[in-house]
Amino acid sequence: MIKGVLSALMFILLSYNVFANDGSNDAKQQNIKQAKIVFEKVEHEYDTISLSGETRRTHRFSFTNKGEKDLYILHIATGCGCTTPKYSKKAVPPGEKGYIDIEFNAKQRPIGRYRKSITVYSNDPRSYTRIFVKGVISK
Length: 139
Prior knowledge:
mainly beta; 2 domains; elongated
């Protein structure tokens, strides 16, 4: 009984893979132009931030549109109010660079190491890319 159910499930999965991966939806085979966001680096480490001094740090993340279609940043989501993104909503043409400025504010954050995730949503077919800021907060 179990062998029969497992065989049926394997058949269904294999059939699905054959039809789902037959190439008919492959954008490259259909010559559909797409945007492609590629960051120079996806993580930045700030210097140690002392809560007794200036608690804000900014970093500019650079990216290139390595696709064949204009790239648009649709939305940027941060994990907390301590990270603030600034970016242009204008198109980044193929081969051109774009920037996302991330400001981190350590004020009212706990002392110690941190790593914050920023999710960048674009019209790249991958839908989103994550970039990170990290560092140490001291007294």
